[in-house]
Amino acid sequence: MKKLPLFLLMLFTCSLFSQKKITDTIFSNKLNEERIIQISLPPSYAKNKSQKFPLLVLFDGDFLFDAYQGALSYGYYWDDLPEVIIVAINQGNSRENDCAVNAETGLPEEKGEKFFEFVGMELIPLIEKNFRVAPFRIVSGLDVTAGFLNLYLYKDQPIFKAYISFSPELPTDMEKNLPERFAAIQQPIFYYHCTADGDLKKMRTRIMAMDEEIKKIKNPSLNYLFEDFKEASHYSVVLHAIPSALYQIFSVYQPISMTEFQEKIVKLPSGYAQYLKDKYELLEKSLGLKLQIRLNDFKAIEAAILKNNALNEFDELAQLADKDYPKSMLADYHMALMYEKKGDYAKAQKTYLRAFQREEIGDLTKDMMYEKSEDMKRLAPKKGKKGEVIEETPVEEIPAETPPETPTEEKKSE
Fold first, then answer.
1. Distance CA 369, CA 378 (A)
2. pLDDT (tens digit, 9 = 90+) per residue, 162-206?
3. Alpha-carbon Rg of the chain, whole angstroms?
4. Signal peptide: which range, if any (predicted)?
5. Beta 53-58 vs 162-166: how paired, if at all?
6. Residue 384: its pLDDT value, please?
C-alpha cells in the first residue's frame, strides 16, 4: 500500500490553519484499487509534538466527514471534547459492495471481506505509522455501513474501542449475535446506536429488538447508549445523534462541571485531591490521552477543600500542581493558602513570597502573591531579637473630653 504523498505536507501545514480536511488517493493491495480518503488533523497537532490523539474512522466519508468535523470543532472550542484525528473513507457508489455479507451467515464475503481487511490491515496501520495516534479507535457509519462496522466486534480482540452506528441495516442474526458478544467481551467497549421513527419499519423492528437484548446484559466493560429519535428521518438522524454519541464516548474527558462538583465532589468526606488524580488517570486509561490537569479543575478541588475545611489536602493538591505546572506559582499558592487558613501566617507569608518568584498562571499573578504576602506579614506575630514572640499591648485610649475632676475628701474639708 502506497504511502500518502501529502503526509509530510500535512504535518508542515497543520500549524498554519485550524482543523481542515486533506483529500488524497491511496492504493489498496487488498482491494486492488485506489480509494479516496479524507484526513483531518487536530488544530494543536503541530504544536503539541508529543501528544497522541484518538482516531475516528468514518465509513461513508463522502457525507459524514463534514458533519463530524463541525460537531468536534464546536466541542474543541469549549474544551468539552478532545481533539481527534479523523480518517474518512469515501465510498460513493461502492458502499453496497464494500459491505457485502453472506445472506446466511451474515459475515463479510467477496469484496466485503476484502474491504474488512483493508480497514484493519492496511488503512489503520498506515495512519498509525505516519501520525501520533492514541490507542483509542472509533468507527462510525450509516445504515448498511453501520451494520457492517459491527462485524469488527465479532473478533476476539476488536480493533475498535468505540462504535457509533446510525440506523444500522443489520446483517443476518446480528440482533442475536451482537448481544452475545457484548456479554462475553472483556475489554472496555463504548457502543452507541440509534434509530428514528422515520426509518423503515423492518429496520426499526430489528434495531429495537437488539436494544432490548443488550439492555439485559450486566457487563461493566460495556458503556452502552441507545436513542430513538422522534420526528426524525432516516438521514436527519445523523445530525441528532452525532453530539449524543460523542458526549457519551468522551464523557470522562469533560472538565469538572457544576453538577459533578455538587453531586459528586463536595459530598465526599475526604479525598478531594485524589478524586482529581483519579479523574485524569481514568482519562489516560480509557482514551489513551495524557493531559495536564485543567486549571479550572484545580480551582474546583480548591473550593471543595475549603468548603469542607479539609486543609491538609492542599499538600496533595500542591504535589499535583508541581507535577503538571512545575515552573508556575500554583503549587506554592496552594501551600500558602493552607498555612493561611490554619492561621500560620508566618509560613503563609514566606510561601506567598516564594510563589511571587515563580511564573504567573491563570488568574494567579505576582501582584496578587505580593499583596497576600504583605497581608500575612501584618497578621504574623512579631519576634524579638532572640526569636521570642512579642505580644503587642493595645494602646490605652484617652477620651477626647476628660470629665471634670471630682473633689477629694481633703479638698472638701478645706
1. 14
2. 999 999 999 999 999 999 999 999 899 999 999 999 999 989 999
3. 32
4. 1-20
5. unpaired
6. 55
Residue 365: C-alpha distances to residues 138, 314, 352, 362 (Å): 41, 19, 11, 8
pLDDT band at 381 (very low <50, low <70, confident <90, very high): confident
Percent of the chain with pLDDT strictly greater than 90: 82
Domains, the chain, in order of start with CATH, read 7-253 (3.40.50.1820), 258-382 (1.25.40.10)
Q: Give the other-Cβ count within 10 Å of 92's Cβ.
A: 10
Cell numbers at residue 60, please? 461513508
Which position has the grid cell 483519579?
278
pLDDT at 389: 53
pTM over 0.90: no
Distance, in Å, from the CA atom of 154 to the CA atom of 23, rounded to the nearest integer, reads: 31
CB 301 within 8 A of CB 270: no
d(CA 245, CA 242): 5
Tell whether the model's pLDDT for residue 12 goes beyond 90.
no
- pLDDT above 80 for 351: yes
Residue (of 124, 57, 58, 63) closest to 92 by Cα position: 63
411 is written with which cell numbers?
479638698
| DSSP H helical ranges for 221-312 | 237-249, 258-260, 272-287, 295-307
In one-letter notation, the amino acid at residue 148 is F
CA distance from start to end of the chain: 127
Look at residue 227 and give its three-state secondary structure: strand
For the segment 37-60, the average pLDDT, to the nearest whole number, is 94
Three-state secondary structure readout of 70-128 = HHHHHHHHCCCCCCCEEEEECCHHHHHHHCCECCCCCCECCHHHHHHHHHHHHHHHHHH
Q: Could you tell me which of 348, 389, 392 has the C-alpha nearest to residue 371?
A: 348
CA distances from 358 to 66, 169, 372 (A): 44, 59, 15
